[in-house]
Amino acid sequence: MKLNAQEAMAADNVFSSIRETGKYVGTITRAEKIVSKNGTQGLGLSFKSNDGATADYLDLWYQGADGNKLPSNKQVMALLACLKLREPVDGEVTFDAWDKTTKSKVKKTTMGYPEMMGKPIGFLLQQELGEHEGKTTDKIVIFGVFQADTELTATEILKQKTSPEQLAKMLGSLMQRPVRDTRRNKTASTAFSDGRPVPQSTDSADDLPW
To answer: Which of 9, 13, 156, 163 is most buried, by CB atoms within 10 Å?
Structure first.
């Protein structure tokens, strides 16, 4: 037995939550199919970084009840590209979920995407301030997605690039405005907080390089 300083320090972060804007690498711990009361469809995501910190509600609402795609659909497509999944199959997933009654985390089994669970992924996460019932809310949202081992973005993967160049630019844009304040902007946008449009996904599965 020999002391591993990195693992020893990681043990202190087991119950910590990600609260700061930045670049994170880890694994997907929840990939849940979610539907809102008004019929909006979403992908419920939770994430655990390699140092043990967690982000439990990185949910992406991608399709309205009317069938129209929402802005977050582009993030979902980027995630699939970075995971190299053409069309993940529905199935049961089990993960830790917060129970309001016991006020603790319990195991929950529901429908989701098993192929995404436990997969390494990289996220650029951004602090977002919002407003709910007159009170300010503070949460972490997905700003960008990249492949964990190569640091390639969705565009680079789909274009079969081998050298990661876009991530540094994305991170630079993110850190120029680390906090997104939606309280001052009530209009929905299809762009990132700095005005940069979210990368478009490919329309044809035949064009995918895997």
So the answer is: 156
Euclidean distance between CA atoms 65 and 84, whole angstroms = 27
Residue identified by tokens 């309001």 is 100
pLDDT digits (tens, 9 = 90+) for 49-75: 999 999 988 999 999 999 999 999 999
pLDDT one-digit tens code per residue, 150-185:
999 999 999 999 999 999 999 999 999 999 998 865
Q: Which residues pair with 42 in a beta bridge?
A: 34, 61
Joined together, the tokens standing for residue 146 give: 């990249």
